[in-house]
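Title: Prediction job returns without error message
Component: structure pipeline
Severity: low
Priority: P3
Assignee: unassigned

Description:
Job completed but the reporter wants confirmation the result is attached to the right record. Sequence as submitted:
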Amino acid sequence: MNILIFTEYFPTSEREGITGGVESRGIHLLKELARRHTITVICSHQKKQPRLSRVAGINVIRVGFTNPYSNTGNILTRLSYAGAAFFTGLFIPKVQVVEGFSYLTYPVAAIVAACRGKPAIATYHESWTFKEWRKLKGWFTGTLGAIWTKFALLLPFKRYIAVSHSTKEQLVRRGVPARKIDVIYNGVDLELMRGISVRQMKEPSVSTSVRLIKSKRADTLIRAVAEAKKQFPDIILTIQGVGEEQEALELLVKKLKLEKNVTFKGRLSKFEDVLRLRKRHRVFCLPSEVEGFGMVVAEAMALGLPVVCTDLPVLREVTDNKGSLFFPKRDHKELASQLVKLLADKELYAQKQKEALRRAKDFDWRILARNVERTYRKVA
């Protein structure tokens, strides 16, 4: 089968350039599909990336103006990608199925498919309301995003893939018929995870991997560490990620006198280095107030790490309430309590560690790729 994928960002290899859950799903899922199908990805171009390349058996075409990675803004360069992607997609030979992987690409995928008389599929990681768009992306970008995605929901997709039942429920509330939606989770590379071997820190330690933007609430975790420090003076927090909130977060660390406890690691280019960093810590935390899936949680569980997460329906679903503890959104004191509980209670820690490893087995990319193939066959 010849499959054409539109996604805004795509890594340069299996181990480098993975900036978030959409990119991780893209490279790992498409790698499995490329074993049996011809996969072409049309994505945006970033500095020093080749325009044409082959990544893990996937044909990758990078189009439009050079588009620096951004969670908000850069509207003109992103629209230049959308326009260039549309025209490029019209001329890819022998396409049988067209799929959009992200908000910006849904209209592109649907219109290219319609022009070519081929079926279109949209993979949704989340589906926000107008109010959520404005809150998470700001007034201007949020308004444009809400209008763009409202338009996308009116387009003639043959089927939808939701990465969780929570996302499926969001789509149904937006008017998508439930019968047209297949739930296919994100996954993890279990073989890679098992091969990560490091020595854990002696100190009580917590890590997180998030974009440093307001909705990911790294500030809640920093405040929680300030509380936990009362019981564990040598507690360590390592924050891996970049974003526009970094300066404000560094000021918060200074204000709370946590300079010796909190480290910012920025963006690590190699995925194995990200995993090694996480595994050196005792606990992984995801303090976000919104998530489409929370792939970093599944990855942490596969590394044998208990996780502490915001009490969101999707994170309850991903963990299946195994290997995890939860805290109310933005409640740094309750988060501190849960961290202390895991770090202080060896029996609880061992129990959650075993649960995490068992749950992680449900996220095997090889099985999930077969599920995606079944969705393709329904429309091709």
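Comment from assignee: result matches the submitted record. Residues 225 and 336 are 6 Å apart (CA to CA).
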